[in-house]
Structures are given as C-alpha cells and as structure tokens.
C-alpha cells in the first residue's frame, strides 16, 4: 500500500502487445511525466515473461531462411564470376542483396521476439526490415527502368552514360530506402503512444500510409513502363513483318521473351505486395493480428520468387553455378554479354 506499481514491460509480439495495451491505462498515472520526444532512446530493456510461440512468426522465420539462402547464392555467383559484372547484373545483384538482407531481417526479428527480447533491438530490426524491403522494391523499379531504356535507346544503351545512370538509380534507391528504415528508429514509432499504432507495430499509421503510398507509386510507374515496352515490341513486330529479316526476328524473339518475363515479374510483384499495402491503409490496429500476418507473409514470397525469375532462369548464371560448384563449361561455351531483355 502507498507504493506505485511499476508499468508492465513492453513487448513487440502481437500477443504481448494486446496485453500491454490493456494494462497501460491502469499504470499510466504512476509512470511519471518523463516520457519525452526521443522515445527510441528511452526504451526499457527488461526481459518480460516468455511468450507463447506464434505459428505465423515461425512461418515468417522459415520464409526468411529460404529467402536468405536463395539470394546469398545469387550474390555469391555474381561476385565470383567476372562475366557477370555488367550493369544489368549489377541491378540483379542489388535486388538479390536487398532480398538477402530482408531474409536475414525476418530471422533476426524472430530471434529478438522470442530469444533476446528487447524493445530497443526489436525497433532496430523493424527499421532494418523496412529498409531492406524498400530497397528490394526500389531495385525492381530500377530493373524495369533499365529494360525500358535498353529498348527505347537501343543504339546508345551500351555506353558510359548508361552505366552512370544505373549507378545513380541504385544510389538513390538505397539512399531513400535507408531513410525510410531510419524513420521509426529515430522516433516515428508508437511505442510511447499506442493510439497512434498501425496494424504493424511499432510503426505509426502515418508511417505505414507513407510506405503504402510509395509502393502504389512504384507499382504505377512499373505498370506504365511495362505498357510502353509492349508498344515498342508491337512496333518491332510490325517492322519484322515488313522486312522478314531473320536476325531481326531472332532478336525480337529474345525481346518478347524478356517482356513475358517482365509480365510475370509485375504480376507476382502486385499479387505479393498489393494485399498488404492495401490492408495497411484500410486496416485498424484493433483488428485481429491474423489479418496482418495473412497479408504480410505473401509479401515476403516476392523476395523468394525474385531470384528464380531474375537469376536462376538466366543461362549465364546457370553456367556460373556449374563453374562454381563443379568446374563445368570452363572452355566449352563462352560467356556472351546479353541485353537486359534476356535477363
């Protein structure tokens, strides 16, 4: 009697978050008035009671493990093979690196939820995940722009200007992604104001709205570029019908194959991320957490599908894999620098 009961320890898992939100009003009066602006610098590191294992978190961890393994192999192959140092494979390497980091982030998020439970570290993990997935989406946009330029400016594509453009795109993509990941770490989170939480704790509603709006913008740009690529292919088809040139027709077949690959990429990209992006905007934090998990898990599958579409279907990467693991094809089939439409 006469002593204030301490506030309950905070926890990032969804189950513990509900209990903490219910208990917060009872203890808010005795918590003191020192909760200032830099919430990310004043987090408690006390270890709460062990939480029950959530099957959805296990599935996210398994997904992250598969993503990390797949993309680590792609990054190793591109770094190992000098023939894969061309600008187009730099873009593929950027995508694989971003997806690799996203996979590692999912694994670390699981560890810090159930093994090393600290709000400070978990907040850093959430920022790391936001930056990684943002870099993955940005790399997909950069690849789409590169493919459009390779068809629109076919005569000047293989120039120093193109290399500079690609490096500039990647620097901008990773810079913006890093900034988005730092926002929750630097204080734009709801750990001190649970009323501002979104369906993805500890991100605020305004934060996830910004991320969703950025995704919709990227998706619309990719869709527009895909339509423009289809128009270019149709013009090529008309020219081929008039000229009946074998080599041109052969190049057109390769271009058409690249466009169909791009359609698959755009379709899987939209099917993976659109449900989660829409739910982040229309969802309410009071909704059952199963809705968040059910839309987030398919979004992670995009990082699992990317290396299959971009890397493992490519003949040069397949040859590099054989050289890396068993030394085959060392002198039989020379490497050929292909256009981005072949990737």
Automatic annotation (TrEMBL):
The gene is GPR6. Belongs to the G-protein coupled receptor 1 family. GO terms for cellular component: plasma membrane. Residues 1-40 are annotated as: Disordered. One of its GO terms (molecular function) is sphingosine-1-phosphate receptor activity. It is found in: Cell membrane. It comes from the Eukaryota. It comes from Aquila chrysaetos chrysaetos. Residues 28-38 have a biased composition (Gly residues). The keyword Phosphoprotein applies. Gene3D superfamilies: Rhodopsin 7-helix transmembrane proteins. Its main location: membrane. This is G protein-coupled receptor 6. Residues 70-310 form the G-protein coupled receptors family 1 profile domain. Residues 12-27 have a biased composition (Low complexity). The lineage of its organism: Eukaryota, Metazoa, Chordata, Craniata, Vertebrata. Residues 1-11 have a biased composition (Pro residues). It holds the Pfam family 7tm_1. One of its GO terms (biological process) is positive regulation of cytosolic calcium ion concentration. The chain crosses the membrane at residues 52-77, 89-116, 122-143, 164-188, 208-227, 259-278, 290-312. Keywords: Cell membrane, G-protein coupled receptor, Glycoprotein, Lipoprotein, Membrane, Palmitate, Phosphoprotein, Receptor, Transducer, Transmembrane, Transmembrane helix. It is a multi-pass membrane protein.
């Amino acid at each position: 009697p006469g002593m204030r009961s301490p506030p309950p320890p905070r926890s990032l898992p969804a189950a513990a978050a509900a209990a903490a939100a219910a208990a917060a009003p009872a203890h808010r009066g005795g918590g003191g008035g020192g909760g200032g602006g830099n919430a990310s610098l004043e987090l408690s590191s006390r270890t709460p009671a062990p939480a029950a294992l959530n099957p959805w978190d296990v599935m996210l961890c398994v997904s992250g493990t598969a993503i990390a393994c797949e993309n680590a192999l792609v990054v190793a192959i591109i770094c190992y093979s000098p023939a894969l140092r061309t600008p187009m494979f730099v873009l593929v390497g950027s995508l694989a690196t971003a997806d690799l980091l996203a996979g590692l982030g999912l694994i670390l998020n699981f560890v810090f939820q159930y093994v090393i439970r600290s709000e400070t570290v978990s907040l850093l993990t959430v920022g790391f995940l936001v930056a990684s997935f943002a870099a993955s989406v940005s790399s997909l946009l950069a690849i789409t722009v590169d493919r459009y330029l390779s068809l629109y400016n076919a005569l000047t594509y293989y120039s120093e200007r193109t290399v500079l453009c690609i490096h500039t795109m990647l620097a901008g993509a990773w810079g913006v992604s890093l900034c988005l990941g730092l926002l929750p770490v630097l204080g734009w989170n709801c750990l001190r104001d649970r009323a501002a939480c979104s369906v993805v704790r500890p991100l605020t509603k305004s934060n996830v709205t910004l991320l969703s709006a950025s995704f919709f913008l990227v998706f619309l740009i990719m869709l527009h570029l895909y339509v423009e690529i289809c128009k270019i292919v149709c013009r090529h088809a008309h020219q081929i019908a008039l000229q009946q040139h074998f080599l041109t027709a052969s190049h057109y077949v390769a271009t058409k194959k690249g466009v169909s690959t791009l359609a698959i990429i755009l379709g899987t990209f939209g099917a993976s991320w659109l449900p989660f992006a829409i739910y982040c905007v229309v969802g309410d934090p009071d909704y059952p957490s199963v809705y968040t998990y059910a839309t987030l898990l398919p979004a992670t599958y995009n990082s699992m599908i990317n290396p299959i579409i971009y890397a493992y279907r490519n003949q040069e990467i397949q040859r590099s894999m054989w050289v890396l693991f068993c030394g085959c094809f060392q002198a039989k089939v020379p490497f050929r620098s292909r256009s981005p439409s072949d990737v």
